[in-house]
UniProtKB/TrEMBL annotation, chains A, B:
Keyword terms: DNA-binding
A Pfam family it matches: MerR_1
The protein's name: Transcriptional regulator
Region forming the signal peptide: none
PANTHER family referenced in this protein's UniProt entry, alphabetically: REDOX-CYCLING DRUG-SENSING TRANSCRIPTIONAL ACTIVATOR SOXR (PTHR30204), REDOX-SENSITIVE TRANSCRIPTIONAL ACTIVATOR SOXR (PTHR30204:SF0)
GO function term, MF aspect, one: DNA binding
InterPro entries: DNA-bd_dom_put_sf, MerR-type_HTH_dom, MerR_fam
SMART domains for this protein: HTH_MERR (SM00422)
Domain HTH merR-type: 10-78
Length: 122, 122
DNA sequence: CCTTGACTTCAACAATGGTTGAACGACGAG
DNA sequence: CTCGTCGTTCAACCATTGTTGAAGTCAAGG
């Protein structure tokens, strides 16, 4: 168990980029938009904690199901510093629920079309 | 049953816009990008068939699940003129399958995270 | 200490998905 | 035939999601 408030911010932009598969520019972009957090060194360089790369990987998959960077950042905003598995679980649920709702809307629309028959011919 | 090659192109941009809930500018945009088709009057005005509004409504929902306009246009490209319910059925399946795959990727990623435990703490 | 590579910011560019406005043409009701 | 509404194109602009390059700074190894 990690001691609360002991999150270590040690990773550089390049390290997070390598670990997440994103370009360094994208890592900075995600930080600017609240998807990940960083502290600054005395020399003004970003230092990330280990979950940054994970957040980015999740963000990339979430983007594929139609969530915007802002929406993803909003979901992640509920994560405490140094999140526990349970915290991630709730985030996962939120993301899946949101995606499911969109899927349901797609399905419902297509189903209505299918059953309506002439719906698309008016 | 409609006689093949008898699709009637009678709807104006404004009518399709009203029927689909999209702005007229968006209707033109979707036509430019192959989501819908139009014929031109002698006076160079667009005339759409009845399925245009339907395609747009489907496109809007599909965009919400992460499909791009290009991808949606590609899916619709398989629709014949004056499509029958069966044709729409296959389109619907394609869209749902694509969306499902993205959902599955999201789920898989989140599940891996959940079970990995320390995956996000490295 | 000094070099080198990785970091910093900032601005420009790009692609996607549109909206808005100007200037002008088409079409239908009266 | 004329009027008003709707259509046309084109260019500019907007937000989103980044990438690229310039100019300069930090940090770690020799």
């Amino acid at each position: 168990m990690t001691i609360p408030g002991t999150t270590t911010y040690t990773l550089t932009v390049g390290e997070v980029a390598a670990a997440s598969g994103a370009a360094p520019s994208a890592v900075r972009f995600y930080e600017q938009h609240g998807v990940i957090q960083a502290v600054r060194t005395s020399g003004d360089q970003r230092r990330f904690s280990a979950d940054a790369a994970c957040r980015i990987r999740v963000a990339k998959v979430a983007q594929r199901v139609g969530l915007t960077v802002r929406e993803i950042a909003d979901v992640f905003a509920d994560l405490p510093e140094d999140p526990e598995p349970g915290d991630w679980g709730r985030i996962a649920d939120t993301l899946v629920r949101e995606a499911e709702e969109r899927m349901a809307a797609l399905r419902a629309h297509l189903e209505q079309m299918r059953s309506g028959g002439r719906l698309c011919e008016m």
